[in-house]
């Protein structure tokens, strides 16, 4: 059976880098953010345009325009999530079916809102990528176009990092450099070795 490890972490914590360490070791990864990007270029675009007229340009959802419409507006965000989340869930199910057919022992579900949207119930264990608040803030504010206001709007939507770590089976501290993070990933793979498919049996101190 295929062991499903949910990978999550708040904005700026190093989740994508951690996912790449797993990919480099041949572990299939379903990236929810990448799935959304593809959906915005495809079948989600007309649905989003119908809900938020003017956010699609040349057949593709303009993420900046969309963000301007939904950030800070809880009702608008709920409408968007009602469109996008079911489509992402379909992509995830197809990914898992392929992985199981291929005989994969371990797969990663990479989702920034894994815990906020209770997707962890579909996983055998949860890995949270974490870093101190000052490191997180510095990383996020170094991104092009990011402002303090936008960061706070995103940050307030996400479960507090301490609560995420409390719910995790594994934690990767990404603040100690790439080599240290990669070693932590290797440790997790060793902990999971030989235990695919045994729900909640591969837990290790976070």
From TrEMBL:
Domain of life from the UniProt record:
Bacteria
CDD domains assigned to the protein according to its UniProt record, in alphabetical order: DPCK (cd02022)
Where mainly located? cytoplasm
**PROSITE patterns tied to this protein:** DPCK
Pathway annotation from the record: Cofactor biosynthesis; coenzyme A biosynthesis; CoA from (R)-pantothenate: step 5/5
Q: Which residues bind ATP?
A: 12-17
Q: Which InterPro entries match?
A: Depp_CoAkinase (IPR001977), P-loop_NTPase (IPR027417)
Q: Where is the signal peptide?
A: none
Write out the GO MF terms: dephospho-CoA kinase activity
**What Pfam families does this protein's entry cite?**
CoaE
EC top class, as a word: transferase
Transmembrane recorded as keyword: no
Q: What is its EC number?
A: 2.7.1.24
Q: Where in the cell is it found?
A: Cytoplasm
| Catalytic reaction list | 3'-dephospho-CoA + ATP = ADP + CoA + H(+)
| Residue runs in coiled coils | none
Question: Which keywords does the record carry?
Answer: ATP-binding, Coenzyme A biosynthesis, Cytoplasm, Kinase, Nucleotide-binding, Transferase
Describe its function.
Catalyzes the phosphorylation of the 3'-hydroxyl group of dephosphocoenzyme A to form coenzyme A.
The record, for NCBIfam families, names: dephospho-CoA kinase
Similarity comment: Belongs to the CoaE family.
Protein name per its UniProtKB record: Dephospho-CoA kinase
Q: Which gene encodes it?
A: coaE
């Amino acid at each position: 059976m295929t062991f499903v490890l949910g990978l999550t972490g708040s904005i700026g914590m190093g989740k994508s880098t951690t996912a790449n360490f797993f990919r480099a070791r041949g572990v299939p990864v379903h990236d929810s953010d990448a799935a959304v990007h593809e959906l915005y270029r495809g079948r989600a675009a007309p649905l989003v345009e119908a809900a938020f007229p003017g956010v699609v340009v040349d057949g593709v959802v303009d993420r900046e325009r969309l963000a301007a419409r939904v950030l800070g507006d809880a009702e608008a965000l709920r409408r968007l999530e009602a469109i996008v989340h079911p489509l992402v869930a379909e992509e995830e199910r197809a990914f898992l079916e392929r992985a199981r057919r291929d005989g994969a022992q371990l797969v990663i579900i990479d989702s920034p809102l894994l815990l906020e949207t209770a997707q962890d119930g579909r996983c055998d264990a949860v890995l949270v990528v974490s870093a101190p608040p000052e490191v997180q803030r510095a990383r996020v504010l170094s991104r092009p176009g990011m402002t303090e206001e936008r960061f706070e709007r995103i940050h307030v939507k996400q479960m507090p990092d301490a609560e995420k770590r409390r719910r995790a089976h594994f934690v990767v501290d990404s603040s100690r450099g790439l080599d240290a993070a990669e070693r932590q990933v290797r440790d997790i793979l060793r902990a999971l070795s030989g235990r695919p498919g045994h729900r909640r049996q591969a837990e290790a101190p976070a």
